[in-house]
């Protein structure tokens, strides 16, 4: 435990470019888009293997209290979020303090699932605000209107030529965007350029 | 009082009326002369307001031309807009919104617009008929010489060669109903659909809504129709699911109803505001498209119909009613339909003398004619303008009675005038209908093509469907909007009642495709104004045997200009049909293709230019490198350290060479560290993982013990080497595979393919974990001491605990759990450390700190490349998709005890041919000459060509600090038999030849003592 206490702080891929503040042309009622980094998150990939999907889902439900979502969907349960990211493959998210990886490993490996830590491999941004859909629409062709992309919908898609996961959260126009860490600065640049005409806040 | 003077300056501006803002005067210049206009003007209307009639020179004959239209169809008034890097040729003065400080210049004239030396072409015009250039110049030598001069003479304006300083971007949109066109039909459709709650997008190419209502004096329910348009616009703005895009042209419909549109965000401003793109390309994906694109008026084809002052009647009404501009003081109106009368009323209302109304129809007894006669207009039936006069501006015209058989009756009469308003009927804009695959059907009533059958998700309404009456446009719009919304699940599909119009019933037009010339006069009757195609050109094409309209178009250039024949195609095709004695539908029409109007290439490129052409990938250690003197190099999408400069050093050949040499020497003699994060890392899990790897690697993996790494070679199915890397066994059912940086994604896709398709029976899952781990290589004689100092207490990295190819996942550095692999690319005692990416820099810094006393320094790709060449390791240049394992000296890695991917091909004769090039080392015989990668290996460079090629240099180190001279690797036929012999390495492009000695591939520590030490 002592070793965990002495861990250095996690350094996000955007530390060198993330300067808090308002940018672009201010919107009529404040920034059109607010972007925050979701830091200190565990992102644990969970794969069911041959014929183990049901057992893995049961194990996750028993251990974390979250139902693994269907294709194209995301779900929240307690302090965790689960996103379907591929056939019999999910990403589970929870803060570092929850011991998510260890709990998943203990629950899922006996049930025939595989657990892969991707916590450091993803940059996760949360976008909200009245112009968030217009901003994202400059980089992705999918329809993000609430009628087509309701709460708890998640897509594996392209955004500004990057592979991302877009996860529609609760509330009006709140989206989490998961990108590969190495492309985080490119994504940040593109998002900021796209949002500038609406005004954006890095928070 | 400055305002008091303005109307005087704008000699042709009405004191009242119009949709211009007289409180917002704007100054602008045309050909260097300053003028004033008002907010709300276009460049064309502002020039007309100032009495400027000549705005350009024609394409071929360089005849002075004035503005003909008031819309996107304009063929004459094409100008160069702005200057410097923003200079834009061929912009239509009718579509440019006036802004303060606007600068425009005329084009296709030299030295100036009033006097153009190339107008001599007009005098020579009887030689310059259709096909003149091909007939005259292509036969004799030097066509390329003439082509340049012909092109310069037939100018289209000059673009800029400077970098475009403005931004462009792309936007995606989805909706239930897309309405194209914000005129009465489009407004009614958008309003009806929008009220149901459907998602609606309405686009209009102008700066405001209303379409033709902005140009006419119609009323609706007793109030000005433009007020109705404003109220609809206001309601649309309040509907949350409706988006209205003005200054936006829907230029094409593509597969699956994808509609391309370009929004001109800042073309109406001097420069785009900060953070705003100049133009935005929309990809709109609607369920239903309602095309309410309106119609374009056709000119009549008569002598001198291109003179400045000859304008379309509808355009005249636009300038009068919308812009409060009088395009002339004495007007002649000529039309084959009732719009002539309507125009005469508007002219008279603006105080312009209407000298004569000419109705070309033999007899019309409609309500409009009766009204005109009752109002006292001078109406001549069955008559037309037979020639117009006035080089730099109209002075008058001949008028004559038509005999109905292509000739005139009696004498012509001269009428002085400075404006001829003419109308040959209206052509529905069926472009988008046609893009969607719809047919064009000829209609004699309106003498134009109507939209025929098309797929059900595109409907064309209103004037675009030939229903020109305002009441018809409105009822079409309300009905189409309700139906489209209903088909998307919104509303009941019932249309509301349309407002009441005050229309005068119209009598049908009578087609007249060309007017006979004034008897005894030689006249030019223009069909295509932009391309200078006359009636005579079409008749000539017919006489020369052109029967297809597609051929006619290409031979005469009819409809080939930037206007794509919007005002000319139907007249031209009708004349061709008449010449052939056939009906117009038999002759047919040309195909409409996107774009409807020209679209700047910048809009298509959007933000995907420069460094945004492709995204950049940075390693987790990027920020450390950047803060410590790195020079980055692009490696695929990655930015990787090339080498590191010392504090105070600037980039130069000398500092670079010194840095690279120091990096190699330090690593070979002490210890170095480098960023290898970009290597592909693939997590392999599942009970069948060992079996799976045993099949995809050519060497054995089934028996790899837990806690050990092994170098693996992967072949393609054709037996050639695909990729290599080390793979470690972390547990019985868990492996970590590494790949080359370049092939990471491809290898993962291949593995998925094998698992999903080829061996679905194997219970294995593979995932990329490249981004999760920061990777650092730590090679050098002192590497173990540094590592031992870096790891937290309790971790044992001794040779016994962590031997060559050992792996440990239990150590920590600064508390960070790391994976340590004892592997080496450089041939030194070496380790690779993987740390979770967010802690990568913390771990790297801990290792740097631990190595400080040993003189550790980071090294980049150049040093890495030199050290691997010194060691004879293969990399990308050797794994070029043409080499077998044996070619690379890796034949022993192709197992003979098992089957694996690519195995079946290895025994084929071509693979075992002893003449195949084999990997060897090559060094300059003189000990100093550099051997360029890519050099060709030959026995005798002076032999007769083709000189037999023995192979080529794959990789080269201009200086190996370790061995003290240049070294290289190459593939050489029967190379292993030639070791010790000499060959020539030649690089003919640079005239370089180097005598090279063939050596073993490994230049450093061939026994591998360092690795195991």
Q: Could you please describe the fold and organization of this structure?
A:
The complex is a heterodimer of chains A (203) and B (1013). Chain A is built from five helices and twelve strands. Chain A has 203 residues and is of the alpha+beta class. Chain A has two domains: 113 residues, 2-Layer Sandwich (Gyrase A, domain 2); 77 residues, Heterotetrameric sarcosine oxidase (Alpha-Beta Plaits, 2-Layer Sandwich), CATH 3.30.70. In chain A, the strands form two sheets. Chain A has a seven-stranded mixed β-sheet with strand order 1-12-2-8-11-10-9. In chain A, helix 2 crosses helix 3. Chain B has 1013 residues and is an alpha+beta fold. Chain B has seven domains: 134 residues, Roll (Ubiquitin-like (UB roll)), CATH 3.10.20; 188 residues, FAD/NAD(P)-binding domain, CATH 3.50.50; 140 residues, FAD/NAD(P)-binding domain (3-Layer(bba) Sandwich), CATH 3.50.50.60; 65 residues, BFD-like [2Fe-2S]-binding domain (Arc Repressor Mutant, subunit A), CATH 1.10.10; 147 residues, Gyrase A, domain 2; 89 residues, 2-Layer Sandwich (Alpha-Beta Plaits); 99 residues, Elongation Factor Tu (Ef-tu), domain 3 (Beta Barrel). In chain B, strands 8, 9, 12, 13, 14, 15 and 28 form a seven-stranded mixed β-sheet that branches. In chain B, helix 22 crosses helix 23. Chain B starts with a helix and ends with a helix. At the A-B interface, strand 7 and helix 5 of A face strand 8, strand 31 and helix 23 of B.
Q: What's the CATH H-level superfamily name of the largest domain in chain A?
A: Probable tRNA modification gtpase trme, domain 1
Oligomer: heterodimer
What fold name stands as the CATH topology of the largest domain in chain A?
Gyrase A, domain 2
Computed Rg of chain B: 39 Å
**Helix/strand structural class of chain A:** alpha+beta
Distance between the termini of chain A: 32 Å
Roughly what fraction of the amino acids of chain B lie in strands?
25-35%
Spatially, the strands of the biggest sheet of chain A line up as: 1-12-2-8-11-10-9
Which protein chains are joined by the largest interface, and how many residues does each one contribute? A-B, 53 and 52 residues
Run of helices and strands of chain A: HEEEHEEEHEEHEEEHE
Low-confidence stretches of chain B: 1-7
Gross morphology of chain A: globular
